[in-house]
Amino acid sequence: MEADALAGEPGGITRRAQLAGLRPTDGAGVLFSLHASDPATLTWLPGLDAVLGLPGASGKELCDRLTELLRPLTADLRRTPPGRDFELEQPQDGADGTPRRIRLRARTVGEQDHTTGLLGVASAVAETGTAKSALAELSDRYQLLMEQSPDAICVHSGGVVTYANQAALDLFAARAAHEVVSQEFASFVAAESAHLVENPSAEPSEAVLKRLDGSKFVAETVSVRTSDSNPPSFQVVIRDSTVKHAAAAAVRAQEALVTHVSDAIVTITGEGIVTGWNPAAETVYGWPSAEAIGRRVHEVLGIDPDPVAIRDGVAEQTHRGRDGSPRLVRVSATETETVDGFLLVCTDETARRRVEQHYATVVAALDEGVLVVGPTGLIQSANPSACRILGVPEAKLLGVPCTTLVLFDEDGNRIPDDELPTIHTRRTGITHNGLVVRLRRPDGRDVWVSLTSRLLDTDDPNGVSVVTSFTDITERRAISARLAHEATHDPLTRLANRTLVLDRLDRRDGTEPAAVLFLDLDKFKLINDSLGHPVGDQVLRIAGERLRRATGPDDVVGRLGGDEFVVVTSATTGQAQVGVFAAHLRSVLSEPVSVHGRQLHLDASMGIVLVEPDDRRSAEDLLRDADVAMYQAKSRGRGRFEFFDVALRERMQRRLRMEQDLRDAVHSGQLWPAYQPVVDLRTGEMVGVEALLRWTHPKHGAISPAEFIPLAEESELINVLGKYVLRDTTRELAALRTGRGLDLSLKVNLSVRQLDDPHLVPAVRDALATTGLPPGSLTLEVTESALMRDTSAAAEVLSALRSLGVLLAIDDFGTGYSSLAQLRRLTLDTLKIDRSFITGIAESRDAAAIVTSIIAMAHAVDLTVVAEGVETAEELALLRELGCDQAQGYHLGRPLAAAELFQ
């Protein structure tokens, strides 16, 4: 052993000792290090001669003496795992012959399960009494031997473990001694090996033991009684049998391998006589073992395999089966040690070669390009489709670095060589699936491909050969791009559609203001209905093109559907600027449009939303608010623009809530009919009642008809309300006529939408039949403006109603610009003068003259005249003088429920 008192930096040993938790306890100890190399090296720090009582001794003397002291620890050092701590006291005579004791504290060091040496502290033990007895020294040595033993040793007394060496702690997977010591020994014994506790034996026997984590293992045990006390003590030596059992299993597996392996294994003598033939050989060659053994090898294999030539190597040969069929075989030959001969391992490659041929045929026929790139990055193979897609013949592809392929990502950036999919897969083993890249061919043409790269053999990542496959998706991508454009653009005008407009609004720069202009062409429906849809489509195309030309390159111009367009701009901000921009758009749209030889004039109503940088409204919210403002512009006379504000939104939201509430009111009893008396001016008696709908809202109370009737007209609820009023009022008045003998007529209003309802006539017929009200007692009133909208259609509906026997009246006369000739074609019974002509009639000669003319015209065609809105006695007296037949108004009676009116 080599010695070196100054080897290495002293501070290095000190730091290692501190990390291992080894420090001199009394300040007089000396650190030492033993490295179990060949030869072993023992080093120490200065002061060892004083500790050993050998002042001035040479390095060799100190090395020899320390080596002798450490011998109990180094005897079985390589079998002791690293991290094991030992403490030992050894006798030592000083230079003057004085006996002394040396205490050695050491720890095994190394890597993982391999111990490479010792690190420790040597210190002199102060003598406090007589020298230690030989028996005590023997006890110390025995305990050290037990601690160093590679076998697990436990001592138990009365069934309780009183001692366990470090090997036992390791075997039972204990982290500390207290997890084993003081525990019941039976807790470490499996139930099937209870005999180890109940009947301990000094003879070696196998037992199943348990670790602290509950796992079991098989061990060979010897139990020796160490005392005659009661209860007795036993020392149990435990040796893990796992390795022995594994070795036995390996032998059995080796024997089974020959029997069950898929390769044919044949043993032959040096003269070529078959001496061994496994079941796989029977399957491959068709010769039973009994017939093959004893024959010459060329008879059963079809050729002489020449084992001498291929000894310790591999050869590919064509053998023959018993039926003469060829077998493509990979053969390896090894000389046998027991007899003069060879062992042949024959792997039948026939099926694999057939599969490879089929695979090569399939790959060659694929439309998908396939490249195999070898470990050096060179292209090793390429199928015809790969050559076609890449535009390179096979001869110019093979052996070329894969980095010669120029690829770009979807953003147009060239992919660096070290990030090419093939290179990346070869470097990391990561598979790329369906990666879309653009490939630049040598002829300059770009091809889009969907590319996949993976290791050729995933079970052997060290092979790093990569197979790259790719499909030409250039045409598919072009189709997808076209479909994507069509999905986001209006097919008629080629402008952005609603989806794209919303997307652009969502992705707008939140730091800049913007404006959203919602446009609706005025009276476009008239163009569509009168000139046909082809003309209407052409007008929409022209309008879209004009808007596109009138806006900037960064503005978004879209068609939302029908005649609705939207413009989103960030170039014009501020209410005044946007107002000028909106007026410019209107002027562009209003230029004459020539379609099929016709000159048409367009105009638009616009709603504008100003978007501030901190505006958090969504794209849908912005369009909704712009639509609300556009609706406001429409309601104020069309051909204008309105800016959106919060108050406008609140009005519209109330309108929407009221519309929904009105739908609910139809079925929840909130609607009820009121009746306003109609008085005969000659007799002063009530001759009829006009049914008027009223709404008592559960939250807002009475809702004015001026608010909810227009809502019903716009939402087509008016048809539902009309049927409700007709059904309930006819039933109620029929009951009053029968129960009280009242000879009253019922007047019910019809809206414009009801005239278009094909169910109107059947509804009137059913109401009369169900309630029993005489048809002549029902008068249906239609406004003059509704009749003038389409006199032909109105005449047809009124004729059908007249056939039921009901009476017909024109309401609000004087507001719809009708003529007497038109009235004669409509077969009416009653004319109601609008309240605007009655109000102030007593003070206005002009109003009186107009009313006089209306009464005269009506009487000329046998119409009964009813004046609406009579508020004063003076108005009533004047109407009597003018010859008016009937009147109604607050002066004569307010609308009341039937129970109040007829109480």
UniProtKB/TrEMBL annotation:
Residues 512-646 form the GGDEF domain. Residues 77-99 are annotated as: Disordered. Residues 77-87 have a biased composition (Basic and acidic residues). InterPro entries: Biofilm_reg_signaling, EAL_dom, EAL_sf, GGDEF_dom, Nucleotide_cyclase, PAC, PAS, PAS-assoc_C. Coiled coil: none annotated. It comes from the Bacteria. Transmembrane segments: none annotated. Residues 433-485 form the PAC domain. Residues 250-301, 355-399 form the PAS domain. Residues 655-903 form the EAL domain. PANTHER family: BIOFILM ARCHITECTURE MAINTENANCE PROTEIN MBAA, DIGUANYLATE CYCLASE DGCP. This is EAL domain-containing protein. It comes from Amycolatopsis silviterrae.
